[in-house]
Amino acid sequence: MQAVLDTMIDHKQRDTRLMWALCVASVVVYINLYLMQGMLPLIAEHFAVSGSKATLILSVTSFSLAFSLLLYAVLSDRIGRHTPIIVSLWLLALSNLLLIWAPDFNGLVLVRLLQGALLAAVPAIAMAYFKEQLSPSTMLKAAGIYIMANSIGGIVGRLLGGVMSQFLSWQESMWLLFLVTLAGVALVNYLLPSLADAQAMSQSKTEPSLSKRARLAQDLHGFSHHLTDAQMRLVYAIGGLTFMMMVNQFSFIQLHLMAAPYEWSRFQATLIFLCYSSGTIASYFTAKWLAKFGQHKLYQWSWCVMLLGSLLTLFDTTLTISLGFLMTACGFFLTHSCCNSFVAMRASRDRAKATSLYLCCYYLGAAIGGPYLMMFWHEAQWRGVVMGSLTLLALIALAITRLHYHQTHVKRVLV
Question: Are 122 and 90 in contact (CB under 8 A)?
């Protein structure tokens, strides 16, 4: 009996360590991803580029992150979950040293391209890691905490970037980022159990050996299975277009708030990121609202909230801009949660590949959105950004309508 109790305690401790390790890893990743968004004014000044050009830093990082997600989905299936996460995080910490001595803006872009590839490991692998190691009830709890960690990491990263931009030089800021990342990675390295790799290795020994070509064909078939599903494609488009609009709106509103008549300081401009908190709260209630109202209604409501939020900012006061971004963040996170749950429920096979495809489109949207909205910014400043956003909202509405049509009139072809 005592042996059984000791085993249960060991499993509980391992589950707790896994949950907190991946949550800390998530915070580290999203701090590193979004810190630059809070530092756009300092980047523009230090590297002698325009504020709008500085926004490309977020785009290039999101671009390399998007496609790296697909590689990690395959790699973690081959060698286990633990090793790719740990190796990528240590390399991420070391890569921050390159930021300290980045010679010019082009050098900064190259380092951030590299970092995007390293940042992809945790979001690509975390949910699969939870699913393999935790019981269903524990996984639901872990997944909820993990999503909150994503949001917290994004908010902290942006606000920390604002503090650095206001009070520290570029080199001082990057040294602080290096130390924060190093401490976080060391904690993840201590907490994260390595059992999954041992399981993956033992499982691979029992599977019939496949040639490299056969393995590649198997992986490509897993991706193509989801890409040939019309409903999956539409959900990928909804997630990508929504993130394309929302995350880049937050970049350009900083430039708007730092100009006349507001003339906010660098740090004050980053306080707009506190509006993300409405999205964190909305995410918490999404499961309940999905069960009560259904997916299509929630898509419609979130789209209306994003539309009203964007239009409200045109009144161009501190209050209307703040309320508008609270609404946009709320609508975005509702949409994102709906998309995530749909992909998880829809994928009957190759779930890691289904999720990685969604996240690829999601971050690819962020990468494309910067240059896209920049054209509107140059033409008409913030009003131009809103006009560009309305075009994206029209495409999102079309995708939502098509998705509803497929769900009500077209039967899925089972493969």
Answer: no
pLDDT tens, residue by residue, 318-327? 999 999 999 9
Q: Report CA 333 to chain centroid distance, whole Å.
A: 11
What token pair was written down for 257?
């708030």
CA torsion 58-63-69-75 (nearest 10°) is -120
Contact present, 125 and 77 (Cβ < 8 Å)? no
Peptide bond into 261 cis (omega under 30): yes
- The residue with tokens 């499982």 is 203
Question: Which tens digit of pLDDT belongs to each residue from 363-393?
Answer: 999 999 999 999 999 999 999 999 999 999 9
Q: What is the pLDDT of residues 205-252, one digit of tens each?
A: 444 556 666 677 777 777 888 899 999 999 999 999 999 999 999 999
Contact in structure between 82 and 192 (CB atoms under 8 Å): yes
Please tell me what DSSP assigns to residue 48. Answer: T
Amino acid at 108: L
Q: Compute, in degrees rounded to 10, the torsion defined by CA atoms 321, 327, 331, 333.
A: 80
Name the DSSP class of 38. Answer: H
CA atoms within 13 A on the CB side of 168: 16
CA distances from 227 to 110, 121, 223, 275, 409 (A): 30, 22, 6, 34, 20
Distance of CA 230 to the CA centre of its chain: 23
- Specify the length of the chain in residues: 415
Contacts of 290 (CB under 8 A, 6+ apart): 298, 338, 341
Q: 67 by DSSP, 3-state: which?
A: helix
pLDDT digit string (tens) for 322-364? 999 999 999 998 898 888 878 877 877 777 788 889 999 999 9
Give the C-alpha separation, 192 to 331, whole Å.
Answer: 34
pTM value is 0.84
Contact 140, 19 (CB under 8 A): no
Secondary structure (3-state) at 265: coil
285 and 403 in contact (C-beta within 8 Å)?
A: no
